Amino acid sequence: xxxxxxxxxxxxxxxxxxxxxxxxxxxxxxxxxxxxxxxxxxxxxxxxxxxxxxxxxxxxxxxxxxxxxxxxxxxxxxxxxxxxxxxxxxxxxxxxxxxxxxxxxxxxxxxxxxxxxxxxxxxxxxxxxxxxxxxxxxxxxxxxxxx
Length: 147
What we know:
Elements (H helix, E strand, L loop, with lengths): L1 H21 L2 H26 L7 H14 L21 H4 L1 H24 L2 H22 L2
Helix pairs in contact: 2-3, 3-5, 5-6
């Protein structure tokens, strides 16, 4: 019984410490920047393939598109009130027009999912428009909500 109580207490303490860490603005900024860096890593390689700057590899492209689709669901958690100062280029306008920002993040999730589906075909002619839609979505948020 004591063993289970100790394990329960340890779990509660771990959860509490995680929440405290996540509440720090710099942690939220680091989190979202890390996710966006990973997205950029994969999206950049896909862009090179789409533009013909690198040999198109259907299997690698599809793998990267799936990773980006999964990653696109993560950054929204890091856009907390009070996290728009310091080592960030995210603008306070996010909070001023949260509905528009959230819509952009939702569009990112939807369009990266569509890109992952298009990538499964292996047909670059189907992939290019889907890739372009993701790029437009990124640009839309950057134009409105990033310094």
